[in-house]
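Re: [help] complex structure
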Amino acid sequence: MAVHKVGDDQIHPLADLDRTIHSPARLMIMTNLYVVESAEFIALMNLTGLSWGNLSTHLSKLEEAGYIEMEKGFRGKKPYTMVRLTGDGRAAFKAYKQQMQEVLGELPD
Amino acid sequence: MSEMIDLRDVERRAWTLYYQDGLWDIFFGLLFLGGGLRALTDNLWFYLLVAAGILVFILGKRWITLPRLGQIQFSAQRKARTAVVRIVALGAMIVTAVIFILIVTGSDLSGLPLNWLFVIMVPGVFLLMATMMDFTRLYGYAVLVAVFTVLGEFVGNPAAAWAQIIAGLVPLAVGIVLLARFLRRYPVVDEAALAEGGDNGRS
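Output below.
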């Protein structure tokens, strides 16, 4: 059986993908934050379908990477958290989008 | 990737999430119902139902929707689209108010095609809202508005009044069903309780 060896030039675009964004949950979060100015934690739970624990974990990772910033506030006595993409996060998502377009656009049907 | 994830669709989904509470439908339902009842009875019904509609909408958004869906700040583009709708709706209200004042003060407007103005303007505002606000149900309500406006301008009461009452009952019923579904689907989320007790903070 013939084995097709994939050339380095074909591997590199995939290998360079931003792994912080490239997880389904974080990609959902980044996508939703990219299209709005900011969203409350609860709104992100509803938009992504992630549980509180899951969302919290992924947001921490994105915050560590400098892609998002979180701002705590109070509505009456109830606390809430607003989440927004930073400039770096927006740029990283744009770059990721571009890379994915290049990689997937070159795949044969 | 644009084929895999349509970013406009993602944004639209976030935006239309807030229409799932049925509060706009209830507001329009009460507004149309009040208008129809006014034509058959007196102004009191209109004032009561419009006041009820405004109260239900404002309090509902504050105490029902926000604790369940949280808040989203949308893009400048989305805010601009909403601003256009507000300006056009306000313009239509001002035109209506000016015509009302001119009629009450005895001005002769018989030469003006006021019937056609209202037949085009009122459903037109609903169509614009539906398009600019991505609010699909408003297309249906625009048709209902067109029907009772045409009847009101060219046939008169009681046919127009009954058409308006029916046109009010439709969105009111839709709104109540949507609100009930919304309450079941989206429980109140307390961030503090979630932080303390994991995913058990939904009530």
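Chain A touches chain B at residues 31-32, 34-47, 51-53, 75, 78-82, 84, 97, 100-101, 104 (CB under 8 Å).
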